[in-house]
Amino acid sequence: MKYRFPASLWLATVALSAADPALTIYNQNFAVIRETVPLDLKPGVNRVRHVGLTSFAEPDSVILRDPSGKVALRILEQNYLADPVSMDALLASYEGKTIDFQLNDGKIVQGRIVRAGLPGQFGEGPPEPRLNQALIESEGKLHFGLPGTPLFPALTRDSILKPTLDWLVRSDRAARLDAELAYLSGGMNWKADYNVVASDETDLVELLGWVTIENHSGKSFQNSTIALMAGEVNKLLPMNARAVRMGGFSAGIAGGSLQIPPPVSEKTFDDYHLYTLQNATTLPDGETKQVEFIRADQVNTKRIYVYDGAQINRDPYQNWTYDMIRNNPEYGTQSNPKVWVMREFVNNQANHLGMPLPQGRLRFYRRDTTGRLEFTGENEIRHTPKDETVQVYTGSAFDLVGERRRTDYQINHGNRTADETFEIRVRNHKRESAEVRVVEHLYRGYNWNISIETDPHVKKDSQTAEFALNLKPDEERILKYSVHYTW
């Protein structure tokens, strides 16, 4: 498409060539892209064209400014040319015209493009009489699909090979400057992965963290300064349905024990955390790049066993009130036999950590007595500030079993009270002692009191009590308690 400008305006056409770019990639499938572009402006109105935006640029987010603040730039008009030359586009532009087609045997035939068809429908394959297929008239016959490879005339000067911005820029003076171009783009993402390696003899672990960056923006970035923003930044989804379909990620285990500074530094920015790669990085389009950003040895972790014995399928009880739950004596009486395995560690400097940990997948490995690594579970952690505790579920214990049984339930509607008694058995079949945290959810009302108990409890919140049971090898412990509800 040609853009016409008022004849009364005197225009100076400026071509932009970008210096090394800088990227801030968010873990929400978008990025801020900044490029330094040289401008040679005349007083008045200049026509400026910048070639090479990403395929998922948001043109209404564009900022063009003089970072020194010396030159007042005003964009009078911006045109976003986002339909680069492709076979689809050229077929559509030559609809109704005759062009050459090269057959598989090299022969050249002419064909008139009766109908270009919809994008993506020009490939080879059996012809189907559908309206979204190309229709070509060649040698007096109609062909659904293309008879061969289309041979188009040479490109015109107005042809767009890459997404382009075309501006009318007013300058208050003649100036040569390095302007900053910044815009938002989809098609880029990053995430964190953590690998925790423990030995068979101790719970001191080695923690390795990776950042994995993916570029599907449609543009390659050479020698780029890359920063990664962690946090939940509010971002409205663009109206353009193309915006970002990201694939999966994977990260391996880094071996060795070289004590080198991490290639990523971290600092607080606004209410988020910014991680900057120390070295300039080339990020080709379609590439997945991984960088180690944390390596910590001798991290003290704690293995925790948790028995949450009430097995409740909550689907049938959606929107139930406390009155409905109290009047259903069978609610919460099914027993869950599995004892969970949890891992817990403190993210502070005393524990050889203390760096804000972005959200990501945490994988656990353990070395057996022969030194071989075995995978023992994984889960995800949320954004975790320094000095906070990380606790994740990694699986169910094989040699620990729980059993929960209700032995009594009484409700007195006149006095607005209810009493319930439970017996919980936990068996340890391991060759070593184990501490099991028994978690009980007191779900029949906010007002409750444990009136009888064989082991002391800790009130964790308004509806949760926790008991600690220490079991010797091959020991069974029996916990009994009664709870009194009032409302």
Report a brief summary of the structure.
The protein is an all-beta fold. The chain has helices at residues 87-93, 322-326, and strands spanning 12-15, 22-26, 30-41, 44-51, 63-65, 73-81, 98-102, 108-115, 135-138, 141-144, 149-151, 164-171, 175-186, 188-198, 204-215, 221-230, 264-269, 272-277, 281-283, 288-308, 338-346, 360-367, 373-381, 389-412, 417-428, 434-441, 448-453, 457-461, 464-471, 476-486.
Shape: elongated
Poorly predicted spans: 1-18, 121-129, 239-262
Measured between the Cα atoms of the first and last residue, the distance is 74 Å
Number of domains: 3
Mind telling me the C-alpha Rg? 33 Å
Query: What class would the helix/strand composition place it in?
Result: mainly beta
The percentage of residues in β strands lies in: over 45%
Number of strands: 30
Which percent bin holds the helix content?
under 10%
Number of helices: 2
Largest sheet: 13 strands, mixed
Mean pLDDT: 81
